[in-house]
Amino acid sequence: MSVIYQKVALIGLGLIAGSISLAARRSGLVGQISGTARSAETRAIAKEIGLCDVVTETAAEAVRDADLVVLAVPVGVMGQIAQDIAPHLKPGATVTDVGSVKQHVVQEVGVHMPDNVHFIPGHPLAGTEHSGPRSGFAGLFEHRWCLLIPGEDTDAAALSRLRAFWEGMGAYVDVMDAEHHDLVLAVTSHAPHLIAYTMVGVADDLRRVTDSEVIQYSAAGFRDFTRIAASDPTMWRDVFLTNKDATLEILGRFTEELFALQRAIRTGDGDHLFDYFTRTRAIRRGIIEAGQDTDAPDFGRKAVKE
Amino acid sequence: MSVIYQKVALIGLGLIAGSISLAARRSGLVGQISGTARSAETRAIAKEIGLCDVVTETAAEAVRDADLVVLAVPVGVMGQIAQDIAPHLKPGATVTDVGSVKQHVVQEVGVHMPDNVHFIPGHPLAGTEHSGPRSGFAGLFEHRWCLLIPGEDTDAAALSRLRAFWEGMGAYVDVMDAEHHDLVLAVTSHAPHLIAYTMVGVADDLRRVTDSEVIQYSAAGFRDFTRIAASDPTMWRDVFLTNKDATLEILGRFTEELFALQRAIRTGDGDHLFDYFTRTRAIRRGIIEAGQDTDAPDFGRKAVKE
Known about the structure:
Low-confidence stretches of chain A: none
CATH topology of the largest domain in chain A: Rossmann fold
Mean pLDDT of chain A: 94
Largest interface: A-B, 112 and 112 residues
CATH superfamily of the largest domain in chain A: NAD(P)-binding Rossmann-like Domain
Distance between the termini of chain A: 38 Å
Oligomer: homodimer
C-alpha cells in the first residue's frame, strides 16, 4: 500500500495508539510517526520499544507538521488536549480520535478546532482487557469495525483519506451520527461493561464465599465477566460520565427485564425462562456468522499454558 | 492408569456424558460404557459416533450391572430417572450426577436410592456453550474442578474411588456440602448466566438499534455475554427453578450494587467508579494465576477463521 499520511501524531500511547503504530507501519500507510503521553514512564517505554519515530514531551510538539493527529486518550481529557494542540496544528491536517463516546467528543474537542483543519471523530470497535504502551499489536483492527462520525460540512476528500487509513489497517469502516453511535455503544459495550464490573464487585464482596472459592470455581461462567471487568479504569470512568443518558437508559431496560426474569424464577414460570433462553441463542449465531466471534468452545481459550 | 469401574452407565448423552466417555476411555478408567438418552435422535447419533459400547432404550437397561451410574440430564428430571433406575441398580454400585444444583438433587434423587448403593452427588465445573452428543471432548475436565457432595454416612472407599475417577480424567476434586455448593455456584455461575441472558435479551429487544447493528458491533464487549447466553435452555431453566433462593439472593445483591453504580453515574461521582473498577481488576489476576483462565488478550480467540 502507499503512504496515506506523511506524518501521523499519536496523542496518548496505550493499547490503541500502539496498535495503530504497528498496523500503519506494517501496511506502509505512514511516513513518520510522532507521539506523546502524559506519563514520563509511558514515554520512556515508548522510546525503548520504538513505538514512534519521535517521542515528544508535549502534545503541542507532537502535532507539529502532522497530517493526521489521533487523540488516543481517555474521553475526559480530550477537550483539554484539543485546546493545547489547536494553535500548533498544520493547516489542512485531519484530527480524529478513538474515544468510545462521540457526542461528548464532538462538543468538547470540536469547539477548539480551527477552521482550517478537518475534525472527524472516530471509534475503532477493537480492544482487549490489556492496556499500556506494551499492549498493542498490529492485528488489533483486522475484521473489526471502525465508526467515523463526520459533520455536515466535513470535507469528502479528508473523509475518504481517513477511511482508507483505517481500511489499510484491516478494519471495516462505517459512518454514523454521534447520537446514534452513543446509543448503539451503550447497548453493545457500555451497559455490558458496567454489568460485568458490578457482578465481579458483588462476587468480591460476598463474605460467606471466600475469594479463593470465587477464583477457583470461576470456570462455571463467572470468569467471562472478569475479562471485561479488568479493562482500564480511567477509560471506563470517563465513558460512563460522558455517555450518561444512553447508558442509564439501557441499564433501566436491563433492570426491568432482570426483574421480570427474577419474578419468573420466584413463581416457578419455567416456560418464560425457557423461551427467553432459546431466543438469546439466535443472536450468538448471528455474531459468529458475521465473523465477529469464534464458534470454538469457550472462545477456543487455553486456560493453562501447554 | 488402571480400570476403576468395570462398567459405567451414562444417563443422558450430551456434552458432559460425551466428554466423560472420551476422557475415561482415553485414560483407561473403564471397562465398558453403556448409555441412554430420552431422545431417539440422540441415541442414534451416540451409536453412529460410538459414544458408548452399548446404547439402550431405557435407563433401567443401561444401569444393569453398572458399577458407576452417572446422571447427566437436566436437574429437573433427575428425580424421575432415579425412581426408574432404583430397582435395577447393582448392589454396591455408586450413583453420581453432574447437575449444577446440589440440594435439590440430594433430596429428589436421594429419596429413591436403595440402602445398598452409594449415592454421591457431584458437579464438574466444566462445560462450553455447545450441547448435544457431538459436543463432548476428552480434555473438557483437565485442570477444572469437580465438586463432590458426600453425605454424613458416605462410604469412604466409594468416595475415594469416585475421586480417583475424576482425577483420572484430569480434574481437581474438592468436597463440599450441598448448601454451600449452591451458594458458591449462585455467585460463580447461576447469577452470571441470568445476567448474561438478560443483557442479550435487552439488546435483542431494542427497537432503535437494529439486530444487525447489535451483531456487527458486538466486539465492543457484548459478544462476551452472548457465549454463556447460548447455553442449553433446558438445563438453565432447571438450574434457576431448583436453586431459586441462592440465585435470588445473589441477584438482590447485584441489583443493589448496580443501583449504587447507576447513582454514581447520574451524580457524576467519578471517584466511586474509578475505585470500583480498580478493585475488580485484582480478581481477574487471581483467576489467571490459579490457572482458571488465559491471560492472552480477548481469551486468545480468533474471531475469523484463518
